[in-house]
Write a structure and sequence with these properties.
mainly alpha
């Protein structure tokens, strides 16, 4: 019953989030702030992690393709498809759920326990829409760009690490990246990134908005938000993979 209660309250919150805003200019100004705070500030960690993931994938694929009958170009092909289909959307989504999700929960939760949200309601502002809608739009808007960046720098990481450790040459790696490319795979991962972005913004916002207590409860809510968001990302990853790749 508690599970159903949270689902019902979550969708009630979404109904309030997408209600007609009082002043569009106020929301637009907040949106640009959230794009900078939640999206632009996440580029650094996405780039660093993607480079390492690409390098690790290249080495592991080379280790598993030790049969001389297999061409070395399969290393680049395997790195490309693994990054596009899974790693650059799901792994980055899980990482950003921790970075962005905990930020959203702690920010909204702190406003809740210090009664700032009550002040917004007294002034006639739809606090749910004002605080949460710009965050959802910002993360959903930025996630595809972050995933594309992750793919690019993941492939770059493989291009740097593979030849550096001697498991593949640069021409072989580049030929593998270009071999049998399926454009739909990019469409698939971008669709996933949009769903993941919505979860990364809305689920932590729910836990932050309905937190009760003090600073300790805000910390606990942040932990629960990250855990639940990660579970939902993996669940939707499974569902979307089954629906879109079959």
């Amino acid at each position: 019953m508690k599970f159903l209660f949270h689902i019902g309250r979550y969708f009630w919150m979404l109904g309030k989030v997408f209600a007609r805003p009082e002043k569009h200019k106020m929301y637009v100004r907040q949106l640009f702030h959230e794009i900078d705070a939640l999206g632009i500030n996440s580029i650094g960690i996405v780039v660093i992690i993607s480079i390492f993931i690409g390098g690790i994938l290249t080495i592991q694929l080379a280790y598993n393709l030790v049969n001389p009958l297999y061409p070395k170009t399969l290393i680049g092909l395997g790195t490309r498809d693994t990054l596009i289909l899974e790693f650059s959307s799901t792994i980055i989504g899980l990482i950003l759920a921790g970075k962005i999700g905990s930020n959203i929960t702690s920010e909204i939760g702190s406003m809740k326990v210090t009664e700032q949200i009550d002040s917004l309601e007294i002034m006639g502002v739809n606090s749910v829409g004002y605080l949460i809608l710009p965050k959802i739009i910002a993360v959903v808007f930025m996630m595809p760009f972050l995933v594309i960046l992750s793919i690019f720098f993941g492939l770059t990481g493989g291009l740097i690490v593979g030849p550096a450790v001697g498991v593949v040459t640069v021409p072989e790696y580049i030929e593998g990246i270009r071999f049998l490319f399926v454009p739909y795979y990019v469409t698939f991962t971008l669709i996933k990134s949009i769903f993941f972005g919505f979860l990364i913004a809305s689920v932590p916002a729910y836990f932050g908005y309905f937190v009760q207590g003090g600073a300790l409860e805000v910390g606990k809510a942040s932990t629960r938000a990250v855990v639940n968001t990660n579970i939902l990302i993996l669940l939707f990853d499974l569902i979307l993979t089954r629906l879109l790749l079959t």
